[in-house]
Specification:
The chain is of the alpha/beta class. It is built from 8 helices and 13 strands. It folds into 2 domains: 127 residues, 3-Layer(aba) Sandwich (Rossmann fold), CATH 3.40.50; 105 residues, Arc Repressor Mutant, subunit A (Orthogonal Bundle), CATH 1.10.10.10. The strands form 3 sheets. It has a 5-stranded parallel beta sheet, sandwiched between helices. Strands 9-8-7-6-13 form a 5-stranded antiparallel beta sheet, covered by helices on one side. α2 packs parallel to α3 and α6 packs across α8. It is elongated.
Amino acid sequence: MKSARVPAQSKPRILIVDDEPRVVRLVQEVLGATGFVVLASFSGESAIEMVALEQPDLVLLDLILPGDLDGYQVARRLREFSDAPIIMLTARAREPDMLRGFEVGADDYITKPFSTKELLARIRAVLKRSQAEKSQPVASEIVCGDLRIDLARRRVFIASREIYLTPTEYNLLHELAIHPNMVLLHEHLLTRVWGEEYRGDVDYLRSYVHYLRKKIEPDPVKPTLILSTPGVGYMLVVNEGTTAANRSN
């Protein structure tokens, strides 16, 4: 009996992060045979880059990885800029290890060795939950202090004064605004706003952030809204007093 395939129009992209070629091949064969698109990474550093550039729908992340980053550290870094569900792969079935994984942003655990049926069942369950969350109504407006971004009408205001932004400036602010308080990698912003061919042009991004700060920051020299993590990316700071609400009018 053949496994049910995922409909062609909605093939989820799964990133497997594991330094064991045998495990990677197994996941590629099982998921590929059931209609998923499978990406592979063999280290924490490359996994972070791939999530930023490829934006997978789900990450299968091994706890033990070569190099300076283990699975916990990778998950923590991913949560700075991505909300893709993370399923930890581990030989550790102890409760403290599982709790630590959930604390850094994991959505589920699979203990090695695992069956292909369990792997598929957990992936489908986590994807279903994630898609249900994304289908909830989203905010049409973000307010941060005097800054108000009307996402539905693509308009930006400082207090009651409308600020004119070029399409590129607005697209950059929009990308930051829909991921509030998350550091978005340079590569993520460049590919999302300008396209894949610009992903290495960090100076280009810095220039536009400079232009944007001059228009929306009270003091562009001492920014409080768009903050930089040197060598990593940018974040739009949305404080506790910020409101993000659905509006019908």
